[in-house]
Write a structure and sequence with these properties.
The complex is a heterodimer of chains A (216) and B (259). With 216 residues, chain A is an all-alpha fold. Helices cover 70% and strands 0% of the residues of chain A. In chain A, helix 3 packs across helix 4, helix 10 (167-177) crosses helix 11 (183-190) and helix 11 crosses helix 12 (194-212). In chain A, 48% of the residues are buried. In chain B, helix 5 (112-123) runs antiparallel to helix 6 (128-140). Classes of the chains: A mainly alpha (216), B alpha+beta (259). At the A-B interface, helix 4, helix 5, helix 6, helix 9 and helix 10 of A face helix 1, helix 3 and helix 4 of B.
């Protein structure tokens, strides 16, 4: 976080933690749970960027399930989801050098890559008419999404924190993130004003962030 | 088609969850570029989305793992870049990073100021004022730099029918382009220039051109959500922009010929 640093931290996690500026920023990552230090993923990425295939394997084993699960939630079709998840994970290998710890944790980086890619996939495949149809079939969609997600919410903490949101916040966040819908579509699905949905998404995520203790 | 409400911050949650249309995204990213507290907020919200991703975990098959590891072993890695090309697309932290000269890159990718200067030279005019603006832009907008430094960045210029020159630097890899123009005809206050991505499915608004009402050089705009086969068009619209074009383009740049 100190000024003028174009370079990411180098070396292992010990080196990363030696930097006070870094320590402030690398709050515990939700991605890694209690099992590993928050910046271990970032340290692995540093090694991956140098072509270290063992590090990539280790990174893969810690994150591939999250990538695949996120993509599956949005894309639904298993074959397509695997294809998208493969692209994301290959992107990690290709562009590990582009990871910048000053912009967030490695967990957030890969989650963003995965979610963005999944959303791009479903949106590029939908013609406008189909999208309208999709929004029109409102009632089904939310139940489906909720069901699919609840089946996978094996992380108690996230479940608990989602539970602390108001119903509209939770629905907005769930439909946006796991459903891959835009806020306008979510507004249509829930029959709520667009401005309200935007606000609920932001408030819901903020509450989730605070509950998880991941404020950077 | 504006961000809605008076406060663009309200879009932060939707943006962090990719729950925005491309025009909304582009507008919000322009807002982010000048708002450090917003970037900070997005960083926090992205950490929350990482938790949502973790909560949805599904164990991949062995075949999936083997295929992924094999693909990596056979794929060349990208060298480090100064931009944050893929993660989050939040505009970078102003002034925190320096653009470096990198010999291996294309001639465009010589750092933001250099590249923008190349744009200005191509457009025919460089003034000190413009150079100053370029320097400001260098500090201002990493999103611009990400496009300009993409390995496949391609530059095109075209005359604007009503006066001036439009220049586009595009990258299919980044699915984005940077648009700028010099000496556009001054418009009355009731009008503005608006940019469009024009594809098979019609025209998508890509934002009103900042600074264009003042003539001279339009501030570089980043337009994301570029698709194969798109053209870029500029029209004159009522101030504030229109959801779809209300007049024929004053310049149309066909992007499909570029690699």
């Amino acid at each position: 976080m100190t000024e003028g640093q174009g370079r990411r931290r180098s070396g292992g996690s010990g080196a990363a933690r030696g930097d006070a500026g870094q320590a402030r920023r690398t709050s515990p990552s939700p991605f890694t749970g209690a099992r590993e230090p928050a910046d271990e993923l970032g340290a692995l990425l540093t090694l991956v960027a140098r072509g270290d295939q063992d590090a990539y394997r280790a990174f893969f084993d810690r994150t591939a399930s999250h990538v695949l699960g996120t993509v599956l939630a949005v894309v639904r079709d298993p074959a397509q989801s695997e294809e998208v998840a493969q692209e994301v994970l290959l992107d990690v290998w290709r562009s590990a050098s582009r990871f910048d710890a000053s912009l967030g944790s490695a967990a957030a980086w890969i989650a963003t890559l995965a979610h963005r890619r999944a959303v791009d996939r479903v949106r590029s495949e939908q013609k406008a008419a189909e999208r309208e149809l999709r929004v029109a079939s409102a009632a089904v969609a939310y139940d489906e999404v909720t069901e699919a997600v609840e089946a996978r919410l094996d992380r108690e903490r996230v479940r608990r924190c989602l539970g602390s949101l108001t119903e509209l916040q939770r629905e907005s966040v769930t439909l946006a993130y796991y459903g891959g819908y835009t806020y306008r579509e979510v507004a249509g699905l829930l029959g709520v004003a667009v401005g309200t949905v935007k606000t609920r998404m932001r408030d819901g995520l903020i509450r989730l962030r605070d509950c998880l203790g991941v404020d950077p | 088609m504006r961000l809605g409400g008076n406060d663009p911050h309200t879009l932060a949650g939707a943006y962090a969850m990719d729950a925005v249309s491309e025009p909304d995204r582009a507008r919000f990213e322009r807002h982010l570029a000048g708002c450090e507290s917003c970037r900070q907020e997005i960083r926090g919200l992205r950490e929350a989305t990482a938790a949502l991703a973790a909560a949805a975990a599904v164990q991949p098959s062995d075949a999936f793992r083997d295929a992924a590891l094999r693909a990596a072993a056979q794929t060349r890695q990208l060298p480090p870049a100064s931009g944050q090309a893929l993660a989050g697309r939040t505009a970078g932290d102003r002034g925190r990073r320096r653009w470096e000269l990198r010999g291996w890159r294309s001639r465009l990718a010589v750092g933001l100021a250099g590249a923008l200067a190349a744009v200005a030279v191509a457009a025919g005019v460089v003034t000190y004022g413009m150079q100053h603006r370029l320097d400001q832009a260098q500090l201002h907008d990493h999103a611009v730099a990400t496009v300009l430094s993409a390995p496949d960045a391609t530059m095109m210029s075209a005359p604007v029918r009503t006066g001036g020159t439009a220049t586009v630097v595009m990258s299919h890899r980044e699915r984005a382009l940077v648009f700028t123009a010099v000496h556009l005809r001054l418009l009355p206050a009731a009008h503005c220039y608006e940019l469009w991505l024009i594809g098979a499915a019609g025209s998508r608004p890509a934002g009103t051109v900042p600074g264009s009402a003042r003539g001279g050089m339009a501030d570089p705009m980043v337009v994301s959500g570029l698709r194969a086969g798109d053209s870029v068009g500029l029209t004159v619209e009522p101030a504030g922009g229109s959801p779809r074009p209300t007049s024929p383009p004053v310049v149309l740049v066909n992007l499909s010929g570029a690699s």
